[in-house]
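Entry 14. Ran structure prediction on the chain below.
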Amino acid sequence: MGSMVWVLLGAGLGLAAVLGGFGYRYSVGQGRLGRAAEAFLWTGVASIAVMAALHELLGFEAFVALAAVDLALLWVAFRLMPPGKGAEAKALWVASCLLVTGSAVVWMGASTWPGGELSRIAANRSGYLFTTGTFFLGALLTLAGFVTLRGVTRERGERRYSDWGACALLVGAACWTAHLVFRGTVVVVVASQAVQPEWYAALRLWSGGMYAAYMTLAYLATAAFGAAMLKTGLAGRRWGRAFVIFGLVATAGFLGQTGAFSPPLIVQFMPYVMGIVLLRQAARGPAKSKERRDDFETPNGTPGARYEEEREKRLRMVLEKFGESSLGNLRMALL
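Output, structure tokens:
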């Protein structure tokens, strides 16, 4: 067990170094501190392995203190990458902070999970309750981040996908809350008893249904918001398609019971990356941000809303000038 912990820690640190180098190389942050801040945010994707190993090595109390320091460093990184001018840039920055922090909190909680067996829950009650609480907090922060993102996409003219995603997350969050309340109350009490009550199996089955509903809806919401980001130009074609494909594949994988997409920490991968993408967009500001794709061209190549408005405006100007010119020629002829 000890050797596996060191292997996990080494693998996590190695992945963090690679991601950090990538983030620093392609950072949009201002100055070395800004570039270092974005590099630090990219290393968070590898934090799952690192956090789990540190929990095994340091113990629960030291791990909680370290997690608090990590959250403080996240806040410093956000402050080193301030948003550009404009209300939209600030809204994107807020959405980014919420999505990244929510994912990080969930991953911290996953590191202390003792497992689903009642005997292990009873022996590691503090870690189990910490996991339950951080899962709830992380889900709320993620929901708030996506709701903020929905406001931006609606301002850019996209309503369908963002509304679908928001509805899916709201229903999923209600199911997730019910599941976590069951875990934090009923499961903890039953774990302390020598014999399971007869009604426990039925309630646990119901709790599993709430969990399955949340996971399915959360993956579908990821795909929906990925489509909204792609349509509004908040994400490039590669990132936008990656978000959509991951959400749909993960939904199929979870429903197919492959096991790869069953842990709740997997749900937070793409929201975390979405947060970084939005942070880069916010840091560029309106002057450096990409032109809104749906303004002049939708992803399928058809004219967008702004294109139609500009075309109608130009037609009115031409007709007005043509009318004035024709009226002038008529006056000259009469004279």
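The CA atoms of residues 168 and 217 lie 5 Å apart. Will compare against last week's run tomorrow.
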